[in-house]
């Protein structure tokens, strides 16, 4: 197997103490996530620990998968929290046959995931939720669906609730070359991906080899394009 940034990121997440886990919520919907290994223990084992870490749910934005959005935060947060990092539907390993594309439906799937995993009352302590960008809207719906008994704190970051057409036009001007938001967010060529990276990555290295972008495009950005386009159309 050749070098792959996907493999490298997964290895780093694994070394931070998280493990991949896939849950079939029903016949139509499957959610993939990375979770702290302690959350795979029975509830009785968790209760026997002298120090219980609080569960923290991290919801990604329009990145290809949860661990890529939160790769820099997982290590410091894993030292203090039991982490749950799901892939939203149509990202990473999460899929559904449902035609619904709303943030509320994404949130309902995550809420069911937590219940199946036994995370939150009455099994464990209440969970805190953090979402960024598109994931911030999902985080809001998760908190609203589960209520204060389940959700202790909510962090919503970089979710522009007042975004309008003028903001989209300004973003496209900054990006340069993209004709629409979906063309910007759903790269189909390495040139498209380089443009998105220049806009989205803080301090992007001046030189990134072409094979890195080819690997990312093939393994992270090429799946479920039509469904992701529908998500963009449904999002605020």
UniProtKB/TrEMBL annotation:
<protein>
    <submittedName>
        <fullName>Alpha/beta hydrolase fold</fullName>
    </submittedName>
</protein>
<dbReference type="InterPro" id="IPR000073">
    <property type="entry name" value="AB_hydrolase_1"/>
</dbReference>
<dbReference type="InterPro" id="IPR052370">
    <property type="entry name" value="Meta-cleavage_hydrolase"/>
</dbReference>
<feature type="domain" description="AB hydrolase-1">
    <location>
        <begin position="56"/>
        <end position="201"/>
    </location>
</feature>
<dbReference type="Pfam" id="PF12697">
    <property type="entry name" value="Abhydrolase_6"/>
</dbReference>
<dbReference type="GO" id="GO:0016787">
    <property type="term" value="F:hydrolase activity"/>
</dbReference>
<keyword id="KW-0732">Signal</keyword>
<feature type="signal peptide">
    <location>
        <begin position="1"/>
        <end position="24"/>
    </location>
</feature>
<dbReference type="InterPro" id="IPR029058">
    <property type="entry name" value="AB_hydrolase_fold"/>
</dbReference>
<keyword id="KW-0378">Hydrolase</keyword>
């Amino acid at each position: 197997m050749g070098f792959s940034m996907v493999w490298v990121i997964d290895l780093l997440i694994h070394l931070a103490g998280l493990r991949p886990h896939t849950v079939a919520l029903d016949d139509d919907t499957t959610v993939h996530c990375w979770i702290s290994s302690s959350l795979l223990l029975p509830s009785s084992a968790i209760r026997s620990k002298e120090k219980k870490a609080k569960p923290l749910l991290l919801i990604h934005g329009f990145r290809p998968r949860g661990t890529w959005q939160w790769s820099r935060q997982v290590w410091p947060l894993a030292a203090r929290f039991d982490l749950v990092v799901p892939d939203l539907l149509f990202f990473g390993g999460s899929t559904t046959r449902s035609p619904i594309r709303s943030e509320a439906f994404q949130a309902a799937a995550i809420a069911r995931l937590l219940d199946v995993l036994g995370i939150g009352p009455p099994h464990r302590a209440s969970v805190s939720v953090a979402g960024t960008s598109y994931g911030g809207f999902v985080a809001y719906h998760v908190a609203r669906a589960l209520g204060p008994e389940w959700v202790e704190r909510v962090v919503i970051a970089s979710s522009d609730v007042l975004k309008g057409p003028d903001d989209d036009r300004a973003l496209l001007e900054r990006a340069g070359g993209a004709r629409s938001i979906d063309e910007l967010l759903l790269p189909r060529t390495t040139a498209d991906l380089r443009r998105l990276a220049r806009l989205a990555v803080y301090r992007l290295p001046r030189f990134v080899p072409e094979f890195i972008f080819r690997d990312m495009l093939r393994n992270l950005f090429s799946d479920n394009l039509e469904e992701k386009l529908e998500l963009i159309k449904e999002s605020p």
